[in-house]
Structures are given as C-alpha cells and as structure tokens.
TrEMBL record, chains A, B, C, D:
SUPFAM superfamilies, alphabetized: 6-phosphogluconate dehydrogenase C-terminal domain-like (SSF48179), NAD(P)-binding Rossmann-fold domains (SSF51735)
UniProt-recorded Gene Ontology molecular function terms: NAD binding; NADP binding; oxidoreductase activity
Alphabetized Gene3D superfamilies for the sequence: N-(1-d-carboxylethyl)-l-norvaline Dehydrogenase, domain 2, NAD(P)-binding Rossmann-like Domain
The protein, known as: NAD(P)-dependent oxidoreductase
Sorted UniProt keywords: NAD, Oxidoreductase
Record keyword Thylakoid present: no
Length: 291, 291, 291, 291
C-alpha cells in the first residue's frame, strides 16, 4: 500500500518519522515545504500539492491544525477526496468536531473512498516512544486494514468506537475536556494550598503517589509547581480551541457543562491576557497562583 | 500509653477496630452509646462521657462530623482540653477548617496538652485494609511519639505537613477539592459522551487504563456509569459540607476558585433536589447525565 | 418607493401591519403562505417567492429567525441580493452575528445594492404601540433615506451605530445579553427571598419603584413571581439562541463573560429539561425557585 | 424620646446630621472619637462608650461595618443590650446576616428591650438628599413608634417586611445581590461592545433611556465607561463582603445562585488583585474591559 502523510507539525513529524522507520515508502506534503525536505534523508518522497500526493496513494494520513484546515485539504477540486483512488483510505488524526468528520465521511463516500476518524492521545515525546493511543471509528473493514499501519505509526493502543466517523472525535473531545479540567483543578488546588501556607510540593507528592497517581496529574502538577510555562507542550491557545469545540459539541447535544464553561472562560481570559503561546498550565498565572 | 477514641461513625469504627486489633486497651466514647457497646467484645472499655474518657487517657483520637462537633467535644468545662492530663495528646482526624484547628491547638496549649491535626484519606473499606494516608501537623515531638499508634490505626502513609496544626487540614481540604472536581468533571464528560452517542464505558476504560489510571477516576467513573448512587460511600451532603469549607478557606486567603464555586453550586442544587443522602456522584443526575 | 416585507412571525406581522397602516403598497412574502394571505385585506400584495418580491421592490425589510434563515433568503440565485435592483436597500431586522451582517453587506455591494442592519428592541405588544427602538448601521445615505420608512414601521427611536453593518448587531446582542442576565438575576434573587421566607412581591415592588424602576425589571419580575411561563413572550429556546450568539461573538473578540456563560448554561439546562417553548423566565423553575 | 447614634462612617455621619437637623438632641458614639467631635457644633452630645450612650437613650440607631462589629457593640457586659432601658429600641441599620439579626433580637428580648432591623438603600449623597429607603422588620408596635424618627433620619420610603427581625436583612441582601449582578453584567456588556468596536457610550445611552432607564444602570454604566473607580462610592471589598453574606444566606436556605457565585469570584479576584479600595465597578478592569 502506498502511504501518504499530510501535516508535519510538532506531532505530525514524529508520527511520519515513526512510519518511515518501518521501512515504508512515505509520500509527504506540508504547507510549509521546508519541514518536508527534512524527511527526504529518511526516505520520504516530497509532494508539492495535496492533489499530487492523494493521486498516488492508497492510504493518506492527515494531521492538521483544525476543522477549517482539514476541510481545506479534503474538500474542493484540489482536495484529497477528489483525488484519492476508489477504495483509498483517509486516516484523519486531527482533533475536530464530530459533525465535521461526519460531513467529510459523506464526501469521501460520494467519491468512492473511505474516511476514518483516528484522533490520538499523545504528546510528541510519547509519540516518539511509540506510546500513542489511537481512537478510531468509521468503516469497520478499513479499520482492520489499517491497524498494522497505525502500529507502525506508533500505536500502543487502538481503541475502536464503532462505525460512525464522528464517534472517535467525541471520545477525543471528551478526553481533552477531562484533561483541561484536571489541569485547572490542579491550578486552583495548588493556589489554595500555597496561599494557605502549606508545602504544595509535598501535598502533590502525597496525592500523585496515592489516589491521583495518574500521568495527567503527575505531569501537570509539576508544570504548575515549577511554573514551566515555556516552551509550551500543549499551548493555551490550542487548549482554548479544543475547549471551544467541546462546548460547541455540548450545545449540539444539549449537555450542560458548568465546569467546562468555567474552564473555557479562564482559557479565554488567559489568551486575552497574552498567554496564548504559553503552556496551557499558565492559567495558574491567570488565577493568581502564588509561588 | 492509655488510648481513647471518640466518634464511631462509618470510618471511626473501622479505625477503632484497627487499634483494638493491635492489642491496645482502648477507651471509647460515642454520642450514640449503642455503637460503643458493640466494641466491648473486642476489648473496648466504654466511657459514658467525653470527660470520663479524657481524664484517664494519655492519647485521645477523635473523629466527629464537623467543626461544631469537634469544638463541642474539645471546648468547655466538659471537654477534652479541660480533662486531658498535662502532656496528653489529642489526635483530631476530622475534616475541618484550618482556623478551627489553630484555635483548638491554642486551647490545648493553655491546658498544657497537645493538639495534633491528623485528617486522613480513606474510604471505610480502604481503612479496613489498613490503607489509610494520614496528613499530620502540629507539635513535632508529639508526632514522632504517636507514629506507632497511627500505624496501628491503619496507616499506609503518614505525611507530615509541619508544626502548625492547621497545615494538615489545608492539605486535606485541598485534596477533597481535587476529588470533588474530578468527580464532577467525570459526570460532565460522561454526559457529553453519552448524549453524543458513543460507548461511554469503553471511553472510560480507555482513559482509566492510560493517562487517568488513578483510583479516583476508576472508582468514580464506575459509580457514575452504573448509577450506583445508593448506598452512599461519600454522601452528597458531606461533599457539600467539605466544599463549603474549601470555599470558606479560599475566601480567607483570597484564592479564586472558579471551578470550585461551580461544583459547590451543583452539590447545593443536588442537596436541595433531595439527593443529600445519595452518593456524591449523584450530581450526574442533577446535570441530566443520561443512561 | 416600492416596499417589500419578508418574514411574518410574531413580530414581523405587527411591523408589516404598521407599514400597511401608513398607506404603503406593501409586497409581502412568508415561507408559510397562509400568514401572508391574512394581510391582503389590509392592502398587501402577496408574492410567491423571495425572488419575485425582491425583483419589484426598492426597499426590502426582512425579519427571519436566525443567521441561517437570513443567509437563505439573501444568498444564492434565488436570493434578495441577486434580484434587488441596483441601489435597492435591504433592511435586515433579525438578531444575528455581526460577521453574518458583514458578509451579507459585502454580497449586496457586489450586486450594487445596499444592506442595512436594523435589529430592533420591542416585544410584539410594544411594536403594535409603535414603541420600537431600531438600532441601525451601514451605508449612511441609505439610512437617512429609510428613516421615514422606519417611522412608519413603528419606530419610537432610531439609534445610529455607524457605517459598518455589523455594528448595530453588536449593540443588539449586547442588549439581549443584559436583558437575559437581568432576568436570571431576578430569578436567583426571588428564589433567595422566597426560600428565606420574606414577601418577595413586596421586595420587588420596593425595588422596581426605586433603584430598579425599569421596564425590564418590572416585566420580568412579574412573570417570575406569577410563574406566567406560558404562552411565551420570549421563548427559552430563542433566549438560548441569542445567548449562544453573544458567546460566539465574545469568543471572536476575546471578551471573557463569566456571567454570560453561566446564564447560557442555565438556559441550555432548561431547554434540555423540556422548557424550550416556555417563556425565558422559566429558568426560575430550573434553579428551583419556590412559589 | 432621647435618641442615640452609634457609627459615624460615610453613611452614618450623613444620617446623624439629618437627625440633628430635625432638632433632636442626639447622643453620639464612634470608635474613632474625632468623627463624633465634629458633630458637637450641630448639637451632638458625645459619649465615650457604648454603655454610656445606651444607658441614657430610649432609642439607639446603629450603623457599623459588619456582623462582628454589630455583635461587639450589642453583646456582652458593655453592650447596648445590657444597658438600654426596658422598652428601649435598638434600630440596627447595618447590612448583616438574617441569623445575626435573629440572635440579637432574642438577646434584646431577654433584656426587655427591642431590636429592629432597619437596613437601608442609599449612597451617601442620596442620604443627604433625604432619599433613603428603609427596609424594616421586627416588633410591629416599635416600628410604628420609630417611623417619625426614620423620617427625620432621611427616609423617602419605609418598607415593612413583617415581625421577624431577619426579614428586612434578607430583603437588603437580596437587593445588594441584584445591584452587584447588574453591575457585573454592565461590565461584561460594555467589554463586549467595546471589543467589538461599537460606540459603547451610545449603546448605554440607548438602553438607559429605554428599557433599562433605572438609577442602578445609569450610575454604574457611567462609572464603568468613565473608569471612575476612585474615590469609591461603594468599595470593592464591601461589595465582596456583601456578596459573601448573600452566598452564606443562600447556603443556609439551599438556594442555588450560579450567577451570584460567579460575581463573588470576580469580586474576590479583584480584591486579591489589589482593587479592594476601588469602586466596585473596578471589576471591569479585572475582566479586561478595554477603554
């Protein structure tokens, strides 16, 4: 199977390198061409347009910044859907609205190709360590077909959410919701602890070695305690983008999310305050967490 | 050292039994006498008043429902402080305001005895399995003196937060804050997932076996998914009481807690709606989480 | 000037009748034809399509339910923009996003016609009493040209917000934001007063005859106190739609609106709870206001 | 009737002067004696203690900063209750918790005197113009007896809330709740309008001359638009104090107040940010309202 890869951002480039390491011939395209050039030495074949890439591949991975960017590379006369061969598979890894996935799945179907939703859970360093959890949904046969590819891409886990493209996107948004609220709760808790004069590091050590011994709490608490807001592992503006998607989905299905709206407001206040490029944990600064 | 124990609620009785198992002579008192009677067979000596118990013990454990109850058994002519012998130690395990602890520490000091704050983390079943984490603070010498007793009481961990009685209470309140917000975030996330039509059980399985693999998330998600709101492990009205203490402490130290206030409102709405005796996870019902 | 009118909902029909009373020949169109028929006796000429109406008018008023409906009647080969004569004026009275107005203004300009934003403040009974406040923005010359028409439509006040179409829409959304928050604040205040056992009617009488002697407070407090939630003067689902527009605009310009998000959640919870067709004041029921 | 007056803060001094203008002999006491001295020229008789004042008066007005201060001057061997003659009346004008009023009413009853709750609505300049609205509750006969005095004190309106002392305090807290939420809503609305690029002054002029033509909206909108945050008419820290009382009362009666909690958080964030002595409208700065 000829495989293509579109989108060489922080995470995309790591996944592309994982694929290349598995001896794949890999066709790559990136809006900013320079990033693609860097992969030639590892065996990548650089394409100069989405169209050129899609036309010669059986499977196309994509990981771009948001719904608009994914629509841009998929729709229209120059898009993936118009050029992917019949039976070809588009594995879309971006964090987007379920409705966007549903619309793109229908578009691919019209063109005789297949759209799979495959958003993923992993920071770049975890992706490099091949510890990616893929959340997938869509055409069941196609999913079985691409599992080996996902493993080559760095999968530690592949979680199947059924035959509707949007399902995996729901799972991904709901997960990011939990991550962002845990992060904000940590910021508030650490703020309370510090202002009340106790050793917040010891307090967090206690919790993260007992009932909160999960990676999310361990990593975010350290970022907040050390005020390691730059460089951003997960930037505040991306966190805000994700939380806005969460609330848009919540509005669509009439789910009240009182804590979610609160966190969205704090992220928005932080971005308005100039912290957009800091790590998402910099909301601690917005709420006045002392150090 | 003669040891006393006041407060035989759900958790208190388990800790008292742990102590009795260690061959301690144990003097016990409970407002409702019947519960104390049940411990006679295990070697308890039942006292008919706080005063009687305090007068003959070197160390007194207490675990009562709230600040008012602790003040009631500690202050006044019939209280622990007035009757505990010089050098005696009061180990107060209740979840209370730091300011209450500070005031009671001062009161004991006036009487020549010692007050230690020792709130704990453990549901009854964990306490029975001797997996209690004690958060302690106060007189350093006294803490070293009572460590063996805490181990007999079921300590898996003893975390020392310094020489101010209130410090351990801050750590405890901050911990309960994190627990309650994690719980509400789970309820909102599960609601979003379900209303969006995905398999919420699978989604939670994915998260609790990866980045959220912590006991808090594992246990609360199961309670919400199964709607196992009765009998209550941690009742909604107690959750509300704790969150009110958190926000009172936050107001004292001018810590903003936007998510905390949101969770407090939901707990209050739930109690007003008649769910006070249900498990705290029943807030899921208040926000309309479908099943 | 030949004048057209599209959209005969609760408010539209009153404004159309105001115009007819001023001896205008008035071309009318409504998706549901029956409502238009009822105006024939008053001198209306019924058109069978938007295209037919637009083609023969110099000025077209429109008042439809939302952004999508306004886009639908304005864009495309059958829309107002394609058929209104050069120099013709489209007076759009719907409550919509500023960005929608800006896009439609540009579309009209391409076709040589003019788009004016003219959202309005008035419940149907006030419109009938000719007490409408129009908020207008767009082409300055056109605004002066249509002022007499707005007066015939029932204007008590015409407020000009400048030459950008979106400006009047911002003013309208910001106004609805204030109305909806005042309403929710009243519900919470009345709830507090009642649960605390005082005479809430007297309390409101005191306030609305002193520092809160404004129509918004007078009318909404009565609706809440009397639980007059049906029929709806301003339905909960429309209130939710408006608040969602407010927050979408707030996100666009990075304005934090903590109270706004709170009210949006309560409206959403109320709609999810089946109160969508009740008056917006029925949020009082959602928060448990006793009577 | 010999009349006393305790508490010569910004508002107290104006009311005392109103009383003095009515030819009353007026016994005055203030913790900081200098303020009392200033009234001698107008006919005041300065007392050096609460006890001294209470012992020689038939009626004592008090207006002190909070619940603790009112308890301090009323309770104990030196307090008003212990020294006011049988049948004497204590008119307590402070904004306090209903429960505090209920307790003090009982205390006075034990001593054979009468406690009336008489919180008031008026900024100092309005008090000087004799436009005070008194909210009163308690012993009905006593209320009728003191009405002439309240008029001399500057009453434009006297609103009777029944025979329980706490009732008037509920009405007062509920009123301040409405004021503070209206204020925050204005700040958010003005922020949205400005960031969206419209003329916020014109927008507010439109609203305050139509559906929001009430003093609260007129005055607060001007303070926010002009950023006239100093000197404070109603300081942020007092606003926070009042909102904390509101939420304490809400917790007591299980009233959910989602908007109230949000405003409380913003006030708290503002005080933590150093704005405690600014006008309460300075929350506009906290939410980033541009000018």
């Amino acid at each position: 199977m000829k495989t293509g890869f579109i989108g060489l951002g922080n995470l995309g480039i790591v996944i592309a390198e994982n694929l290349l390491a598995a001896q794949q011939p890999l066709y790559v395209y990136n809006r900013t061409a320079a990033k693609a050039q860097g992969l030639i030495a590892q065996g990548a074949i650089v394409c100069t347009s989405v169209q050129e890439l899609a036309a010669q591949c059986d499977v196309v991975f994509s990981i771009v910044s948001d719904d608009a960017a994914l629509n841009h590379i998929t729709q229209g006369p120059d898009g993936i859907a118009a050029h992917l061969k019949p039976g070809g598979i588009h594995i879309a890894m971006s964090t987007i609205l379920p409705d966007t996935a549903i619309a793109l799945e229908a578009l691919h179907r019209q063109h005789g190709s297949i759209y799979l939703a495959a958003p993923l859970m992993a920071r770049p360093e975890a992706a490099r360590a091949r510890k990616i959890n893929f959340l997938v949904s869509g055409n069941q046969e196609a999913i079985q077909q691409v599992r080996p590819l996902l493993e080559q891409a760095g999968a530690a886990g592949i979680w199947e959410f059924g035959d509707t493209a949007g399902a995996a996107n729901v799972a991904k948004l709901s997960s990011n919701y939990l991550i962002l609220t845990a992060m904000e709760a940590l910021a508030e808790g650490i703020n309370l602890a510090r202002r009340s004069g106790i050793d917040a590091d010891l307090w967090m050590k206690m919790l993260t070695s007992t009932i909160f011994n999960a990676p999310v709490y361990a990593s975010y608490s350290q970022l907040i305690l050390k005020e390691a807001f730059q460089p951003a592992g997960f930037s505040l503006k991306l966190g805000l983008k994700d939380m806005n998607l969460v609330l848009q989905q919540a509005a669509n299905v009439q789910a009240v999310m009182p804590v979610g709206t609160q966190v969205q407001q704090l992220l928005q206040e932080s971005v308005a305050g100039g912290l957009g490029d800091h790590d998402v944990t910099a909301v601690a600064r917005t709420i006045g967490a002392l150090s």
